[in-house]
Amino acid sequence: MAEQDTAEALGRAGFEALRSIAESSKAMSTMLSVQTTEIRSLMSKIDDVQERVIRLEEQRHGRDIETLTRAREAIEMRIAALELAQASMVGKFQGAGTLASLVKNYFPLLAMAAAAFFWVSGYKIEK
Predict the structure, then answer these.
(1) What DSSP string runs through 33-81?
(2) Interior CA angle at 85 toward 91 and 72, to 5°?
(3) 19-24 long-range contacts, Cβ below 8 Å, gap at least 24?
């Protein structure tokens, strides 16, 4: 009988140990579920913060891009004005150069034509 009592006591102790392990496992599972829910909530908050940061960065970069675009347009307008001024200056210089070139090239011919005209017309230069 003593052996039966010992066997029963060991069986009950084993059963109690298994029940305790099962309860601990349930408690751990519940805790794990709660922690998983909290982690999901934190991940959702982190995603929301990331989206806000991205939107803020886009706004800031958008303003920077607008500023750079306006600066580029102003520079392009200045370049166009400078090119126009340069073209008009070059045109003036080329016009003067063209006139000088014409006079230089055709002066001997014009002088000969004038001399022939005066010779034919009988014009005399008196001293």
Answers:
(1) HHHHHHHHHHHHHHHHHHHHHHHHHHHHHHHHHHHHHHHHHHHHHHHHH
(2) 140
(3) none
Coil, helix or strand at residue 123:
coil
Cα separation of 99 and 107, whole Å? 11
Residue with tokens 């922690």: 35
> Residue 122 — very low, low, confident or very high, per pLDDT cuts 50/70/90?
confident
Check residue 125 and report its DSSP letter: -
Name the token pair of 22.
Answer: 């099962």
Here the tokens at position 61 are: 């970069």
Q: What average pLDDT does the segment 99-114 reach?
A: 79
Predicted TM-score (pTM) of the model is 0.41
